[in-house]
UniProtKB/TrEMBL annotation:
InterPro entries assigned to the protein according to its UniProt record, in alphabetical order: Methyltransf_16, SAM-dependent_MTases_sf
Organism per entry: Sitta europaea (Eurasian nuthatch)
Catalyzed reaction equations: L-arginyl-[protein] + 2 S-adenosyl-L-methionine = N(omega),N(omega)-dimethyl-L-arginyl-[protein] + 2 S-adenosyl-L-homocysteine + 2 H(+)
Function, in words: Histone methyltransferase that dimethylates histone H3 at 'Arg-17', forming asymmetric dimethylarginine (H3R17me2a), leading to activate transcription via chromatin remodeling. Maternal factor involved in epigenetic chromatin reprogramming of the paternal genome in the zygote: mediates H3R17me2a, promoting histone H3.3 incorporation in the male pronucleus, leading to TET3 recruitment and subsequent DNA demethylation.
GO molecular function per UniProt: protein-arginine omega-N asymmetric methyltransferase activity
Stated name of the protein: Histone-arginine methyltransferase METTL23
Pfam family, one: Methyltransf_16
Protein location: Cytoplasm; Nucleus
Length: 198
């Protein structure tokens, strides 16, 4: 599981998002949860173990990541959790036929700025289909130069910052990494912005 290949490693963002799910575990039973860019699937596995109905997904072009999702489920005695190929920014039969969703999870999906709009396009599509759903996401601050604010506005989405101390994730052992450099993790919840007059 600790293969350093991207998508095959438990990144610090996944640990922080899993901590948020654990802190909200009493609200998870019966919730319908979709994890995008799941890779090793730590947040999705935690949600499923807490009683949520989980679907895991990763790119159609990354079968090894989807296999990692399946392996994580088997290791955690969750053999019936579905794993789908969903590619950000692409409308596919799998995306169109997704069951209703309450919570979308994404840990460290905001990694490469060239993917940001594809991710938010997919999130917007899912939130339009599920207007009361929320996208719970953690990300690592890698550059002061990137921001998704303009894209959130473009896609009529809003974000709410979630302080790590509010769910006990501000401890160094939770968000630390053996990789060099500083690892500042942030969390936000993205939802549909209110339309004018509603």
């Amino acid at each position: 599981v600790l293969d350093s290949q991207y998508g095959m490693y438990v990144w610090p963002c996944a640990v922080v998002l899993a901590q948020y799910l654990w802190a909200h575990r009493r609200s998870l039973p019966g919730k319908r949860v979709l994890e995008i860019g799941a890779g090793v699937s730590l947040p999705g596995v935690v949600a499923a173990r807490c009683g949520a109905q989980v679907i895991l997904s990763d790119s159609e072009e990354l079968p090894h990541c989807r296999q990692s999702c399946r392996s994580s489920c088997l290791m955690n005695r969750l053999p019936h959790v579905p794993v789908l190929g969903l590619t950000w920014g692409r409308v596919s039969p799998e995306l169109l036929s997704l069951a209703p969703t309450d919570i979308i999870l994404g840990s460290d999906v905001f990694f490469d700025p060239k993917d940001f709009e594809d991710i938010l396009t997919t999130i917007y599509f899912l939130l339009e289909k599920n207007p009361h759903a929320e996208f719970w996401t953690t990300y690592q601050v890698r550059s002061a130069d990137w921001s998704i604010e303009a894209l959130l506005h473009k896609w009529n989405l809003k974000s709410t910052h979630v302080p790590l101390h509010s769910f006990g994730a501000d401890k160094e052992h939770l968000a630390s990494s053996s990789m060099p450099g500083r690892h500042t993790i942030e969390m936000m919840i993205i939802s549909l912005a209110q339309s004018e007059g509603t």
